[in-house]
Write a structure and sequence with these properties.
Layout: E1 4-16, E2 29-41, H1 58-73, E3 76-80, E4 98-101, H2 107-118, E5 127-136, E6 139-144
Parallel strand pairs: 1-3, 3-4
Antiparallel strand pairs: 1-2, 2-5, 5-6
């Protein structure tokens, strides 16, 4: 068995607020998120396959994560649905891309959400190994498949 881990890095800008929180993050604020998606699999050995030697093509991983995560979150506001009453009642151009979740949008919960979204989109034989999300340059949360079996 020749398992190899392959990682792709992504970036997006997102705002959030932590509802009912006792610190500064209760205010709407933004972060420059850095996301690392690591998959695991065996390099293709079929000499007739154009992807010979790859676990998967980086561009294929990019396409999956960009659509499911990056494009969805980039330049959006993410808040817990319990806080929706704090936003303007009338929709306006500043609040066109707001996502309400059943969970508090902490870095930890966002990592769980991302893993849940990406894992089923991977090709057979490719497993999601880990998700690492940097909220700031020095703070991140991680999800590992082995911790969640």
């Amino acid at each position: 068995m020749k398992k190899v881990r392959v990682t792709k890095e992504f970036h997006f800008e997102m705002a959030h607020a932590l509802w009912n929180y006792d610190g500064l993050c209760r205010h709407i604020h933004g972060h420059s998120y850095k996301l690392f998606i690591t998959v695991i699999g065996e390099p293709i050995e079929d000499t007739s396959d154009q992807k010979l030697g790859m676990v998967l093509d980086f561009s294929d991983l990019k396409a999956v994560v960009k659509e499911a995560v990056v494009d969805y979150f980039d330049h959006s506001l993410v808040i817990f649905k319990g806080a929706e009453n704090y936003l303007p009642v009338e929709p306006n151009e500043m609040y066109e891309k707001v996502h309400f979740f059943d969970f508090q949008p902490t870095c930890e919960n966002l990592v769980l959400y991302i893993a849940e979204k990406v894992e089923p989109l991977l090709s057979p034989g490719i497993g999601l190994f880990s998700v690492r999300l940097y909220e700031t340059a020095t703070s991140y949360a991680e999800w590992y498949a082995t911790d969640n079996q």
